[in-house]
Amino acid sequence: MKRQKMYTSENILSGKQNSNIADNLKNVKHRIIVMSGKGGVGKSTVATHLASSLAHRGFQVGLLDGDIHGPSVPKMYGINAAATGEKRKGLDPFKVTDNLKIMSIELLVNSNDTPVIWRGPVKIRVIRQFLQDVKWGSLDFLIVDLPPGTGDEALTIAKFMPECDGVIIVTTPQEVALNSVIKSINFARSLKLPVLGLVENMSSATCNICHNRIDLFSSGAVVDTCKKYNIPLIARLPLENEISRNADKGSVSSYAQKTSQWTECFRNIVDIVAEIDTR
């Protein structure tokens, strides 16, 4: 029986394609990856607010939604994919503001409800096109929102996006989330990607009556993980209802300008990333 060829990111992306990716991103000064070991921890929330906050500070920012099967970035910005697709040409990114552009597979499908039913090789080719063919232009930062885990999409982007400046790993305090986060840490290190730090999302809530802090999950595990792996804990984000409401309404971009307990905690992430531009 003839052995079936195994497709991986290494043998699908040729040396010429790698060169094309580098050439397409030559005017992108800094590249930041946002990832998590599992879904539902608020990774896209961190990625979209980071992109919007940097744009509000005057940086030129691109945001690439790397999730092929569950893209959420367009919805969080209030963009109707079906209507938008008719107005765009090729792989031009969608311009959210003068300082912020986004690209997502959802901008290329016929309907928001259309599932993407693709195997690994096809997904890798599409991600290659996102890196090689999307006309990002001149950017200060390209933020990449990876899907959960360490599979095809994460490996392709992490391995073939040249000169990544760092990875931000998002988790929640539960042990089950941290088990996956450790895999993300080892994933980044195995690819020699610098880890900028961990973000503990849904760290706590504030009681509306007594205004005391409520720990929603077991506390201390994220701090212990950071110490064990010598990684900074760059933010502990509280659970704030308005964050999820704004994402559902597509108002992520405007919320980055508001002042709240959440945005105050989030500012440290933005400061750390913005400082990269001054090095």
TrEMBL record:
CDD domains: Mrp_NBP35. It comes from the Archaea. ATP binds at residues 37-44. Keywords: ATP-binding, Hydrolase, Iron, Iron-sulfur, Metal-binding, Nucleotide-binding. Pfam families: ParA. Homodimer. This is Iron-sulfur cluster carrier protein. It comes from Methanosalsum zhilinae (strain DSM 4017 / NBRC 107636 / OCM 62 / WeN5).
